[in-house]
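If your schedule permits, I should be very grateful for your opinion on a structural question. Thank you for your consideration; the sequence and its tokens are set out here:

===
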Amino acid sequence: MNKTILITGTSSGFGAATANYFAAKGWNVIATMRDTTKNGNLEKSGNIFVTQLDVQDKNSIDKAIVEGINHFGSIDVVVNNAGYGLFGIFESASREAIQTQFDVNVFGAMDVTRAILPYFRSNRSGTIINISSGAGAIGFPMASVYSSSKFALEGWTEGLRYELVSLGITAKIIEPGGAMQTGFMSRVGGESAGLNLIEDYLPFLEQIGKVYGGMQGTADADAVEKVVHAIYEAATDGTDRLRYSPTDDIKPILNARRNTSEEEYQTFTNSIFLAK
């Protein structure tokens, strides 16, 4: 019997690419999205079932899980991919905007996971894969709110992992590259979030804009493919490995974060983000 994966946020990006890849590998795919009319990036395949799921709507989460199980007979893996980035100066972000960022990136993933866990527990098996970011390990300027949501996602996943081991359930994290995955270069001024500009920050914005502009050439050209392959590895390798960091662009700064002293790390990141 083919295994089945449920993926949130499959209308585009990592979600659509992951759905298509797993389907090509013979998996049954429950491809979920807020608006099912936006399914044009999915391959036409008999083993892709498209259904509506809004991570901010608990009823739609429960309904999608039931529909997916009824359609394919089981769910073996859940990928919490749905998310977005709020970019700009923290002081410019309203409380409502920050709340929505966490509602989608953190509480949405928690609600999907909470909804699937009784089913996984009854089967004594299952894998939960949460799509984080390099910004989930490193606080990037202009992305303090986004980073904090991904930090929360990673801390929750790591703690959850211990709770689920004895039940045969694994929880895993994918960390795509920061510059590539978060779209800093096109959003460095916070325009996409509709944030108000505070003039005192203009010198910083000019300086950091140059920094991120210089990163345009560092993103992996095949980043989406690498991320999709990492998700597939996490779903199939049969290990309890927690983190997968598939793109090369984020590895130097991840290495500095995790393998050097705090002083060395701060000096390194200051040289990147505070260079004159």
